[in-house]
Predict the structure.
Amino acid sequence: MSDNILSVIPTDPHWQPGPEAADRTAAVVAELIPGLTDGFADVQVSWHDAIMIVDCGANLERIGCPRCAGSVDPNWWTELLETRGDTGLSTLLTQVPCCGAELSIDTLDYEWPCGFARFEIAIWNPGRDWFTGEELTTLTAALGRPVRQVMAHI
């Protein structure tokens, strides 16, 4: 069986909220996800010591390089996930295989958004598509910092 995960993360990958802001934002998420009340969806709130990759799973179609406009080898991305995905990233800087430039991996062009964060609210099987712009504004206000979303299919 496959799962969908809709994640809300701060746009600043280094930032973490305090418990009150996290609880407030999780409460807003609960209001926006109808499946939570019937037990079909599940919300997980996570803090991490290092920056974690919040990828889109099987939704990823392409990764582009902002420096050379070339495609980044998907095998390179898979290896990055396997070697650093569980323990987190001490830095976002890496050398991309397409042109050898040293870039922050959060500046790569992902077709289906991916993100990087030390804080995440993950909604498993939300039973809905993306949050709307208005909903993201509400989540931003609750968290106290700008947020973005990632939709994974695993």
